[in-house]
Amino acid sequence: EIKEKERRVREFLEKKGLGGVLLCRQDNFSWFTCGKADQVLLGSDTGFVSLLITREKKYAITNNIEAPRIIEEELKGQEFELIVLDWYEYDRTFESRVTKLINRRKLGCDVHFDKAEFIKNEFAEIRYVLTPEEIDRCRWLGQKSAKALQEVCQKIRIGDSECKIAAETARRLFEEGIFSSCLLVGTDERIFKYRHPVPTEKKLQKYAMIVVVAVKGGLNVALTRSVHFGPLPSEILKKYNSVVEVDAALISKTVPGKKYSEIFKEGA
């Protein structure tokens, strides 16, 4: 898997006429390192380690605080050359060190970086085709996340607040090393009023909905689960059946070689 991703990146460099690519985003770190994490700040797109891949070598640039953990727990055996900068001078010295390593060649970067071509969207395309190992990890993520939500739904009781339901969901996911980049919980009328019901202290009366985007190792799985106490109203059942029909149509049209636009058009 590592060799395949190195091949894809260097093929990208050749196609773009670049001497190297600087990866600062957490998702690209996880992708290139085959599911490892640079996840100190969960709410940030960028991490504390930047990967510089040239046509000949690959570097991991970080500060002296993160370096021991990164090399021992995330990058062990992956043959990166580690570049360690003092944390208190990191912002001042990072650019000059990258410039020296790239040696005046053209550079691409997945964030806006001085004197580099912004290649975030183009680079994302080389991640679209999952490796066999990524498919296995994605299936694991889906199965574990679904199990976690099922267990939460089975424990929900009338009178639980949306925040309590959200907290229990986050706890169950974290037990598997999974975090949620999006966690929504709506109850009763809030489900119908808002597309994105962020959790509040409102207490459940009859109907609850949990929405999660579960993340691990750079992979994402989206899930929605609903719980209703008492007879199910025809309005909810009708909407549920409509969603299932749309979902089935889109899944059946999702085959190798199809464009997203074609899938949505045919599944409409």
Automatic annotation (TrEMBL):
Q: Name one Pfam family in it.
A: Creatinase_N
What range does the record give for the signal peptide? none
Q: Where would I find the Peptidase M24 domain in this sequence?
A: 142-265
The record ties this protein, via Gene3D superfamilies, to: Creatinase/methionine aminopeptidase superfamily, Creatinase/prolidase N-terminal domain
Q: Where is the Creatinase N-terminal domain?
A: 8-139
UniProt xrefs under SUPFAM superfamilies: Creatinase/aminopeptidase, Creatinase/prolidase N-terminal domain
Protein name as it appears in the record: Creatinase N-terminal domain-containing protein
Question: What is the protein's species of origin?
Answer: marine sediment metagenome
